[in-house]
Write a structure and sequence with these properties.
The structure is a homodimer. By secondary structure, chain A is α/β, with parallel strands linked by helices. Helices cover 49% and strands 9% of the residues of chain A.
Amino acid sequence: MNRRNWLKNIALASGTISLQSFTLTPEMAERWTGKRVLFQGDSITDAGRDRELSEPNHPRALGGGYAFHTAANLLRTNIPFELEVFNRGISGNKVFQLQERWQEDCLDLEPDLLSILIGVNDFWHSKSHEYEGTVETYENDYRRLLERTLEARPSIAIMIGEPFLVEGGTALQEGWEEEFSAYREAALKLAREFNTGFVPYQSYFDKALVDAPVSYWCPDGVHPSIPGAVVMAEAWLETFKFM
Amino acid sequence: MNRRNWLKNIALASGTISLQSFTLTPEMAERWTGKRVLFQGDSITDAGRDRELSEPNHPRALGGGYAFHTAANLLRTNIPFELEVFNRGISGNKVFQLQERWQEDCLDLEPDLLSILIGVNDFWHSKSHEYEGTVETYENDYRRLLERTLEARPSIAIMIGEPFLVEGGTALQEGWEEEFSAYREAALKLAREFNTGFVPYQSYFDKALVDAPVSYWCPDGVHPSIPGAVVMAEAWLETFKFM
């Protein structure tokens, strides 16, 4: 379909696309009032946040990505359950680097809900940065991180984000998506093993590609645009409903 | 009402509060496809944006305030009308300071829709910074700015934001809200005079105070929190429907 046509089709279909607001049920409100939410991960989570700012619910501390959009929706539509939302994502991180800073950047913050999105660099850097980890390294390191977290905070709720590559992105090479699916499967396997939530980011991006090309959602295939980050927030909020 | 009670009341009422998504009608899509939106103003608009970044639709270039929330909603729900959204707000600005940088930070950008929010510093700095401007200075400077804009770009659409002070904010002093209403009235008068849109931010904050205290929306009475900035985006999008 050429560009002119999909513009037109979308114009006609525009009524079907909408940002879903998400309001806690009274039962969920009871459960989550005054609780701490922590976003952890790599550059997709980091999204240019000001790392000098440590406090919750601050726009610059939350960065410009899905963590910010998620926090904005939660805080606006669930007044005022005193949720505290933190972001401690750091660009370039692989799962072993989360492990290195986990005491300070996770356990010491005493989160009640931990949202993790990690994996794209575990794969990508093995292609381009002489990193020698494999999908087994990723799975084993990730398992240890989850075990450590649950040992320190047995009642914590965890949401594992599906790592994703958006088809056609400029940073991707032939065959990468297929190879990367092993990392996505490892994340899903761990979510089942530890009975955590699982945020299907890849499926959300795959669906979004029906409406607009990769350049609109995630130009390089790894780092979402503004509307791409909103799509991620939608995926997150849908999953949170079951937490 | 004590804190415990309003928490409970809000929990029960939570279904009534929601982020409204906003989708362009086909007619509006036709009108706005490929157009440029420029946010101008002071710290409320600036909201910590990275001033080194000049491109549109970039999270760090849009800051962490209502301009970003508005852009995120527009870009997510109106795919992909190729809107370009810019932010050129600068902290501390009064209307005469917009005038000084108007060529570079407005006219040269060739916006199709200009959203301005200015006025709180014109008042505040006359109280606390030995600034000698009055409400007449504000109105006259603002009028000249609008005349200049329309002369340079006769077909531009303009949205004038109602300057606001949120009752009970920590930076406000006794009697300020009443005195400041003259600035709000001047902004409304200019909106009528030039037949522009008018975004009633003050009314939106006044309504929000029914649901939660000022500390939740705008702690100092001037600078909105994350949920306060989302309320502003809602006000903006409602007004945009009539543009």
